[in-house]
Amino acid sequence: MITVEDIFHKIAQELKGYSDSDKSAAIEEFITGCVFDLRLAITTDMEETKFNFLERYGHGHTFYFRLNNYEQGRRLASQIYWVMQGVHPDMSSYTGAQFSTEDQLYLFVHVKDVRPVSASNS
Question: What average pLDDT score do residues 82-98 get?
Answer without folding.
Answer: 92
